[in-house]
Automatic annotation (TrEMBL):
This is Aspartate aminotransferase family protein. It comes from Telluria antibiotica. Its cofactor is pyridoxal 5'-phosphate. It comes from the Bacteria. NCBIfam families: PRK05965.1.
Length: 461
């Protein structure tokens, strides 16, 4: 891109484009990083840099960039029928086939699919359906929702109250009075210690205690991610999800699994629920469903929830809809992306490549900045600490995350540098062993450079 064009775009961006989850004034100062193309696991920016993407866009481009068969599926569907409403009994073939395919692939408890445009409105739809469900089954007092500290459930008006990230609450009058949190099952920093059973036991006890405090008759549902993503890639012990499922059953509250990040091979199997044979009451998905090639999400629900809603107001429509629910182009894209995961071998490749990813993360443990390496499948993190023994966090005034993100960009690798000095990684399922080598070489160089800065060096014990 020419310099004049770049300058024009940068100033138009500053003047008009509002970006998600940035400080608006800082963004005006900094300006946008403009991306122009992608191929495989590489992105190209407007300055002509080729960057290795270790974050799949925003944990979504699980199939990598430039998959021609997906482009063809979208083009053909656009040409044939670019839009069909699913309101008023209309439908399109790709949407119907996709719903049926998802029911085949998802945990057996989930039998019905409502399509959204992404994860936030999938969570929002789940909340609305749950409210409807309890009202229509004669339990209107069941209105309280419980989720996890460090959880992320998008940024809809209600969903962002289930989210437990301060920036999503401040000045938004959230969380709402009926939204509650229990501690995250955070192995590296868990008050219950490091023992997996103790961590699981502490989560179950915290859920029971919260439900007891609110009154079991007043609690609607518990929402969780199988691995917490935006809260810092918190990987609970194996067995945690299953234990929380069982606890919800005993407590007579709905169990909602938010697989927006963990779905579609991100942790190994198609859904993280599969690894522990967990059967949720509802499940939200998005991102890897279309691998970011078109917007789409969904909420899947059990027969029991669906039937209660179906019979809830005889003769009345269920007043929940989106113009683009079950969009045929997004559905055609999703069907092809699902084919790539399965027949195309990408799920299998993700599983086969995971040892390279895991080994690379573990090797980084010897770096002076790295306190912990953790992952499940191709979802991983490094947690940086000033003192490995005491697990002391760096002084926020160092702005370490911002410095690491900038150094990484100079070294032509993109990952997520969270505010509390956790580095998040979500490589595409098509990564090869040599691409992992390149990722860790660039990452090590980045951390070495940041460590060489005198104030950082002085902060490390
Ligand atoms: C677990 C989870 N739920 C919901 C969402 C919201 O999805 P979207 O950004 O597509 O609205 C996200 C997004 O990162 C997520 O990670």
């Amino acid at each position: 891109m020419h310099n004049t064009e770049l300058t024009e775009l940068a100033s138009l961006d500053r003047a008009h484009l509002i970006h998600p989850v940035v400080n608006y004034r800082s963004h005006e100062q900094r300006g946008a990083t403009i991306l122009v193309s992608g191929h495989g696991v590489y992105l190209n920016d407007a300055q002509g840099n080729e960057l290795l993407d270790a974050f799949s866009g925003l944990w979504c481009v699980n199939v990598g960039y430039g998959q021609e068969s997906v482009v063809r599926a979208a083009t053909e569907q656009m040409r044939q029928l670019p839009y069909a409403t699913s309101y008023f009994h209309f439908a399109s073939e790709p949407a119907i086939r996709l719903a049926a395919r998802l029911v085949e692939l998802a945990p057996a408890s989930l039998r019905h699919v409502y399509f959204t445009l992404g994860g936030s409105d999938a969570v929002d739809a789940a909340i609305r359906f749950i409210t409807y469900y309890f009202n229509s089954t004669g339990r209107p007092q069941k209105k309280h929702f419980i989720s996890l500290e460090r959880g992320y459930h998008g940024s809809s008006s209600q969903g962002s109250g289930l989210t437990a990230i301060a920036a999503f609450h401040q000045n938004f009058d959230l969380p709402l009075p009926h939204q509650h949190k229990i501690p995250s099952p955070y192995p590296y920093r868990n008050e219950a210690g490091q023992d997996p059973q103790a961590i699981i036991g502490a989560s179950v006890a915290a859920l029971r205690a919260k439900v007891a405090a609110l009154g079991a008759d007043n609690v609607a549902a518990f929402f969780c991610e199988p691995v917490q993503g935006s809260g810092g890639v918190i990987v609970p012990p194996k067995g945690w999800l299953k234990a929380m499922r069982e606890a919800c059953r005993e407590l007579d509250i709905l169990f909602v699994v938010d697989e927006v990040i963990t779905g579609f091979g991100r942790t190994g199997p198609l859904f993280a629920c599969e690894a522990e044979d967990v059967q949720p009451d509802l499940m939200t998905i998005a991102k890897g469903l279309t691998a970011g090639y078109a917007p789409m999400g969904a909420v899947l629900m059990s027969d029991a929830v669906y039937c209660a809603i179906a019979d809830g107001a005889p003769g009345m429509p269920v007043g929940h809809g989106h113009t683009y629910s079950a969009h045929p182009v997004s559905a055609a894209v999703a069907l092809e992306v699902l084919r790539l995961y399965e027949e195309g071998g990408l799920l299998a490749n993700g599983v086969a490549q995971t040892p390279h990813f895991e080994a690379g993360l573990r090797e980084m443990l010897s770096h002076p900045l790295v306190g912990e390496a953790r992952n499940r499948g191709l979802l991983g993190a490094l947690e940086l600490v000033a003192d490995k023994g005491a697990k002391t966090r760096f002084d926020p005034a160092l702005k370490l995350s911002e410095r690491i993100a900038a150094a990484a960009y100079r070294n032509r690798v993109i990952f997520r540098a969270f505010g509390d000095n956790i580095l998040g990684f979500a490589p595409a399922l098509c990564y090869t062993a040599s691409e992992f080598e390149l990722l860790f070489a660039r990452l090590k160089k980045t951390l070495d450079e940041v460590l060489d800065e005198p104030d950082v060096r002085r902060s490390v014990k």
